[in-house]
Write a structure and sequence with these properties.
Helix content is 73%, strand content 2%. The radius of gyration is 20 Å and the shape is flat. It is mostly helical.
């Protein structure tokens, strides 16, 4: 979908929205701007700049937020923007791990994923909204389960430590 096809925003006969072209450009620079010599693998600035601890991940996260802003300005539903935000959150959290996170960034390509989601929504708004809603609900349920498990484990450890302190 990032092969140059443009979607018209606002009806037949109108020029493609320049914001979508800009979002594609940002995604390409962050995720696929350069070809690794001798391979078909493409990487962008995200894993390269991400090699600089802290500053690099923050800088690329700020640039990646532009695609979310474009989606919101084009009227994408909240569930779609949330799904795109989850892609960026995964990219930021895993990308923060030194070196391994940068390798993940090179393969995950959150920005290209987000532009594809936006283009899919522009082509067929209703099915994309349903699918995004299910993904967001599933991720929220999983996050709630993990949070509950961590809280339960913390309570158990605290109870054990309290018992040990009283006994000793």
């Amino acid at each position: 979908m990032l092969d140059g096809a443009d979607f018209e925003i606002g009806g037949a006969g109108r020029a493609p929205d320049p914001r979508l072209r800009e979002a594609r450009l940002v995604a390409r620079w962050l995720d696929a701007a350069f070809r690794v010599p001798g391979t078909d693998l493409r990487i962008g600035l995200d894993p390269i700049i991400g090699l600089f601890p802290g500053v690099g991940d923050v800088a690329t996260s700020v640039a990646a937020a532009y695609v979310l802003l474009v989606a919101w300005r084009l009227g994408a539903p909240a569930v779609l923007v949330a799904r795109m935000g989850m892609n960026l959150a995964v990219d930021a959290v895993v990308g923060a791990v030194p070196l391994l996170g940068d390798l993940f960034d090179a393969g995950f390509k959150a920005n290209l994923r987000n532009v594809r989601l936006l283009e899919t929504w522009l082509a067929a708004p209703a099915p994309t909204r349903r699918a995004s809603g299910l993904v967001v609900a599933g991720v929220l349920a999983a996050a709630l389960a993990v949070t509950a498990a961590v809280a339960f484990a913390a309570i158990r450890v605290a109870a054990w430590a309290y018992g040990e302190l009283r006994a000793g």
